[in-house]
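Page 37, top half.
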Amino acid sequence: MAFLTDIEIAQACAMKPITEIARTAGIGEEYLEPYGRYKAKVDPAILRDSARTDGKLILVTAITPTPAGEGKTTTTVGLADALRRIGKNSIAALREPSLGPVFGIKGGAAGGGYAQVVPMEDINLHFTGDFHAIGAANNLLAAMLDNHIQQGNALGIDPKRITWKRCVDMNDRQLRFVVDGLGGRANGTPREDGFDITVASEIMAVFCLASSIADLKERLGRIVVAYTYEDKPVTAADLKAVGAMAALLKDAMKPNLVQTLEGTPAFVHGGPFANIAHGCNSVTATRIAMRLADYTVTEAGFGADLGAEKFLDIKCRMAGLHPDAVVIVATVRALKMHGGVPKTELAAENTEALRAGLPNLLRHISNIKNVYGLPCVVAVNRFPTDTDAEIACVIEQCAALGVRAVLSDVWAKGGEGGRELAEEVVRLCGEPNHFTFSYPLEASLEEKIETIARRIYGGSGATFTPAAKKELDRLTALGFGGLPVCMAKTQYSFSDDPTKLGAPENFTVTVRGVRVSAGAGFVVALTGDIMTMPGLPKSPAAERIDVDDDGRISGLF
């Protein structure tokens, strides 16, 4: 039997006009700014003007990802559709895809099968231009920084201590380390420089965490871009760059409204990576969705040790959000990979390997329940090759921890395949929970990192290189010790070693560097070999993406 690709399914969908989707969501025309027929921006003023009580907030996260796939975004979209099918007013709140993974490995990130947001091609390619605006604001600040030095350097900036990088929304390893300002005095000051991918830029984090234009400007002003010869931080406010940066971002700050294949309203806004940033969609989009819907379904990137940890410890803490339930997505295939089965042999039944890989899922469950105090359900994203014995094994092991595992078939059946999951989520949202954070802000930066390594990753603690320890001490002395920590770590393991699958123990996480994101309001800890500018794989998805004479795109799978 031949299956349609994701893009073929999306292109066959008869989309509703975005004005109709807005009416479904309860958004008046005065708040709607259409971008064509099928997407629009929504004025955040709707939050100020609405008297509705906020609805429930459901987080969708996952086990540690593998090449076998988990389906977190697919489950998020399918759950939002399923909630509507059982009579609940729901809205999805997702991140925007980065062009880096779209042209690199993924080829698209708008869900899959019959649980997608559309227009799929627009969402994956440029969308409403938000990421271009973020990149422009980032690079304007870089240009003003170098121009300040060129024009006399009144602030006394040490060119060897510039921390701000330019960015581009593409996987381009050639730009990780560059030397610029060459060609003589008229062309700038020669120095070592580099690029981050746009989704790793602090501007992206600020954009997603800001609650208003005023808050955006305050956060932009706090961004530390360099240090002076006297070791004093230099900020965007010092460079008088804030107003112009905010002007570039003012329209991008308005959340984007689209729809699922089934016509469920969905906000797609912001997109920081969860392995090198905080991995959540914008606070504004989440808040608007909660104000309009009884159930908001949102996601956080990669496994629960990354996206969920940052969603809970950073986003919820800063925005005052209180999740009502958590969905942990797992697949039998991925669990068998954690149990040691090669990707080529995943189709064969292997309950022994499945049991060996299950500790990965169980540790994520334990973290959500026992560390954060939140009720959760496991969504088993079923593949055709999964056997009844394997499914029964997952359900049995989850039940031992007091957590229900529910089959999810939203990829093949859309919202209809998620009814049981939706009913369980509604039940969990009616239960009291005891949400708390994994660490107190009063702890030192080192203690916060150590706590995450032990309580969330299951390791024995963290070690710090001399350079990292020195920088932690300096940041603490500068007054940044009370900020939360954003861990930059491989997504493929609880540890900082991507080859350690399953639920490794007796490991330490090595912190090789730290940097302050004062505008975003957290300190980033760089572990292992994590890069803030990814590279393309040997055979990038871009090689298979094309467009015909009628403008019809292919290859976005």
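Page 37, bottom half:
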Amino acid sequence: MASASDMHTDAPSGADIKLVISASALGTVFEWYDFFIYGTLAASGIIGRAFFPAGNATVQTLLAWAGFAVGFGFRPLGAVLFGYLGDRLGRKYTFLVTITLMGIATAGVGLTPTTATIGFAAPAIVLLLRVAQGLALGGEYGGAAVYVAEHSPKKRAGFYTSFIQAGVVGGFLLSLAVILLVKAVMSAEMWAAWGWRIPFVFSIVLLAISLWMRLKLSESPVFQKMRAAGEREANPIKASFTYPGNVKRMVVALFGIAAGLTVIWYTAMFTVLSFLQTTMRVEETLAQVITGVGVAAGVGWFLLFGHLSDKVGRKKPIMVGYVLTLIFLFPIFWLMGSAANPGLARAAETQPVVVSGADCEYSPFAKVQPFACGKILDHLSRKGVPYTTQKASVLDVTIGGRSVIDAGEAALAGVPNERIDAALARAGYDLTPVVPSAGNIALILVAIVAMSLLSGITYGPVAALLSEMFPPAIRYSSLSIPYHLGTGYFGGFLPFISQYIVARTGDPYAGLWYTWCVVVLALLVAAFGLKDDRDGAAVA
């Protein structure tokens, strides 16, 4: 079997490489558009209202994000299935299949009746379609990354494959752009009733364009040579786990690369969008526009650091990105929060909400909280108000140090929500949608571009790095399996886990600890598991 370093081809013609990069990158944009359109609409609450109505906004949001996570959970299975096909049948035809499956599944979500129409069959159908999307995506990224990498000459693979990484960002941006465009041409009532389905059905148009472009492509030159020499692996999945040193490579790829870069990327995209829309109460459309502009301004980071990795090696940018993330993650979000809603941020700082009681436990999934303290926390969580809890023998709620319930109410464990709401309003907790000033919007954009920088440093070089780590005969499988385990589970469950942490703690920034801890793990694994080889990264 050829070694991991046997990847690069002779320099293709300018026209050929442009077609390879554009067809692969655009296909990646469209495929990730299909996958992200669900997450983009989940952040605004539409998916929850349509398919997961629960009578509780917090639970509804968590269920919608759980549906988002389901797709990611099946990505590793798609990686196994399509990785096998990619190593046996070829790179080109395999990712033609994946993009077709993705386009059909995405349109299906847009055509599924709501729960109000067909009952529990609606969420069941949506979850099955999310499974299909996850399977398709499990095969898409590995195919596109390997295909472009195997067309790249030495010293250009990082730059050429960085367009694939930028294509992932492009899918997120396209999902925002289509949503904003559709919302702009119809009333709010039409959008809420049926207009949100158009971005899903639009996937059919993108599928047709992508198939037209990808059918023009020829098979990867590395795969053609391997097939001509009879070097294809009979069972690439089995060989991925038996080839000398390959399991170690896959472990490093999973925990040191995929897990770390993914939580940074999803924090820079979905956490930012959800944070602005829900936590900081920025007007929905404006939050989407700000996020889209900020992310678009940061796309160049992916290309820059992909190109830089051709000169300094793949490991250095990734390690620097991890360290910078650990240092600046919380400060970036603190800046964003204070700029997005200064009044709410000031109220949380100067008028903190403290709930005291003997049984201050809150379960976001409980239909009814068993204790009075939990009922208060449930009310605050639904409104998105940050709080802290204290153990005490007597139930109490203080805002800025002043109690808002009297002794009689505490003794009876009766806490009127109206009084709490009135006290919150007096303390400056304005929970209506806000439009930040122009100066504050500029600060938010600076914060988003900074998050995109952290993502670009770690994500830009990755397609080349992963392709260079594995032998050609098992490259598609060996790359896809750890990548999609890392991105599927560490990244796909990030919105759900971080939102759950916020709901349980009452701290709008507490969910960032999930990202921070995963990045610590990735930093340690990459530091000891990767060696820096400018001619192709490998496991030490």
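Margin note: The two ends are 20 Å apart (CA to CA).
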